[in-house]
Design brief:
This protein is α+β, with helices and mostly antiparallel strands. The chain folds into 2 domains: 15-100 and 107-235, Type I PLP-dependent aspartate aminotransferase-like (Major domain) (Aspartate Aminotransferase, domain 2), CATH 3.40.640; 240-362, Aspartate Aminotransferase, domain 1, CATH 3.90.1150.10. The chain is 38% helix and 15% strand. It is built from 11 helices and 16 strands. It has helices spanning 15-27, 34-47, 58-68, 85-92, 111-117, 137-145, 197-206, 227-258, 290-299, 327-335, 347-362, and strands spanning 51-55, 75-79, 96-100, 124-125, 149-153, 161-162, 165-166, 173-177, 190-194, 211-212, 215-216, 264-265, 273-274, 280-284, 305-306, 336-339. It has a 5-stranded mixed β-sheet with strand order 1-9-8-5-4, with helices on both faces. Helix 3 packs across helix 7, helix 5 (111-117) packs parallel to helix 6 (137-145) and helix 8 (227-258) crosses helix 11. The longest helix is centred in the last third of the chain and has 32 residues, at 227-258. The model has no long low-confidence stretch (mean pLDDT 98).
C-alpha cells in the first residue's frame, strides 16, 4: 500500500474565504480599495500599531521602507542565514547588503553580531525573526544605542510576541508575508507595520506610483494589494489565534519526542516569547545526516525542507562583504531540517515522522 502523503504545509483556507471573495466580486471593484483598507486596519488593531500598509509581498514591503529611508550607496547589515528576499530588497533600494552570522540556536542575529558588524556610516539594519522566532529584546536596545533604525524582516512572525508585545510593534518598521507557507495567507501579499507617521505616508504613496492626492510627488511603483486578496486576509485574521495555538500544540508534540533522540535538537524556543512555529526547524547535530533524513522522509511520501539559505554560498551573493566567517550560517544551511506542521497533521503523523528520523540517526 502506498504511503499517505504528508505535506510540509497546508494553508487553513475554505468556504469562508470564498464567501468573502464573492462579496468583493459583487462590488465589481477588484483592485485595492475598501476591503484592503479594512484588512490594514484589522492587522494594525491586532498588533496595537498605528499603521499597517498592505503590499504585494514582504519583499516589496522591505523595498518600500528602504526607499523611504534613502539607503542608496549605504551598507545595510542583513543576516547571511535568510531567504534572498532580505538582501534583495536592500539591493533594489540601491543599498549594499553586508552579510552577518546568526546564533546557532535561535537562527537569528544577536546584539553581539550587530555590534560587530556596525560602522558609524550605517543608518539601518535589517534582521530577520526567522521561522516565527522573535529577536532577543537586546537587539532592539543595541540598535537604539547605535542610533540605527531597525527594519525587521518579520515575514514568518505575525502573531509572535515578546512578553505581551507583538512583533510588528517593536522594531521601527516590520514587514510580514502572507505566502501560503506563512501563518496566515492571502496567496501572495505582505504588510508593513510602523508607528512612524512619515514613513507610513511615504509607503502608502510609494505603492500607489508615488501619488499624493491628485499629484505625483515621488517616484513610486505599483505594490497595491487587491481587494480580492485582502478579502482572504480578513477571514484569515479571524482565525489567526486558533491557527497559532494549533501550531504551538503540535510543536510541543515534536519537542517531546525529539528531545529523547540523540543527534537532533528540536526547534528553538526563546524565553518569555510566543513563537508562531511558521516553520518547525530542528538542527541535525549528527554530521551529514540531514539529507539522509530528508531522503528517508521523501521515500515515505513525507515532505520536508531545509531551513533556509546561507547567502554567501549562493552565486548572486558570493562577492558581497561579510562579517566574520559566517560559520553558524553555513552549519545551519547544511544541517537544519524543517518538518511538516499544519492543521491536517495528526499526532500519528508526527510519531511516524519522528520514528523515521530515529531510525536514520541510529544507522
Amino acid at each position: 500500500m502506498e504511503n499517505k502523503a504528508i505535506p510540509l504545509a497546508v494553508p487553513d483556507v475554505g468556504d469562508e474565504e470564498i464567501d468573502e471573495i464573492k462579496k468583493v466580486f459583487d462590488t465589481k471593484f477588484l483592485t485595492e480599495g475598501k476591503t484592503t483598507k479594512e484588512f490594514e486596519e484589522k492587522v494594525a488593531s491586532y498588533l496595537g500599531v498605528k499603521h499597517a500598509i498592505a503590499v504585494t509581498s514582504c519583499t516589496t514591503g522591505l523595498h518600500a521602507v528602504l526607499e523611504g529611508l534613502n539607503i542608496k550607496g549605504q551598507e545595510v547589515l542583513v543576516p547571511d542565514y535568510t531567504y534572498p528576499a532580505t538582501a534583495e530588497a536592500v539591493v533594489l533600494a540601491g543599498g549594499i547588503p553586508v552579510l552577518t552570522d546568526v546564533d546557532i540556536n535561535s537562527m537569528n542575529m544577536t546584539s553581539e553580531i550587530l555590534e560587530e558588524g556596525y560602522n558609524d556610516e550605517m543608518t539601518v539594519f535589517s534582521p530577520v525573526s526567522w521561522a516565527g522566532v522573535p529577536l532577543e529584546p537586546d537587539v532592539y536596545k543595541k540598535a537604539n544605542d547605535l542610533n540605527l533604525k531597525c527594519l525587521e524582516d518579520s515575514a514568518c512572525s505575525l502573531g509572535a510576541k515578546i512578553g505581551n508585545k507583538f512583533v510588528g510593534n517593536i522594531a521601527d518598521f516590520s514587514c510580514f508575508s502572507f505566502h501560503p507557507r506563512k501563518v496566515i495567507t492571502t496567496g501572495e501579499g505582505g504588510m508593513i507595520t510602523t508607528n512612524d507617521d512619515k514613513m507610513a505616508e511615504y509607503c502608502h504613496s510609494f505603492k500607489h506610483f508615488g501619488a499624493k492626492g491628485s499629484s505625483f510627488e515621488i517616484i513610486g511603483t505599483n505594490y497595491k494589494l487587491s481587494n480580492i486578496l485582502s478579502a482572504i486576509g480578513l477571514v484569515q485574521m479571524k482565525k489567526i489565534e486558533k491557527i497559532i495555538q494549533n501550531r504551538i500544540e503540535k510543536a510541543k508534540i515534536y519537542k517531546e519526542i525529539l528531545t529523547k533522540l540523540d543527534g537532533i535538537k528540536p526547534a528553538y524556543v526563546g524565553n518569555g516569547t510566543r513563537q508562531t512555529f511558521q516553520s518547525y526547524t530542528c538542527y541535525v547535530e549528527k554530521e551529514n545526516y540531514r539529507d539522509k533524513i530528508r531522503k528517508a522522509l521523501a521515500d515515505a511520501n513525507i515532505q520536508s525542507q531545509i531551513g533556509t539559505y546561507a547567502l554567501h554560498l549562493e552565486p548572486a551573493y558570493k562577492n558581497y562583504k561579510r562579517i566574520g566567517s559566517l560559520e553558524n550560517s553555513k552549519k545551519l544551511f547544511y544541517n537544519a531540517l524543517t518538518l511538516p506542521l499544519h492543521k491536517d497533521l495528526s499526532q500519528q503523523d508526527q510519531e511516524k515522522i519522528c520514528k523515521i528520523i530515529e531510525t536514520i540517526l541510529k544507522n
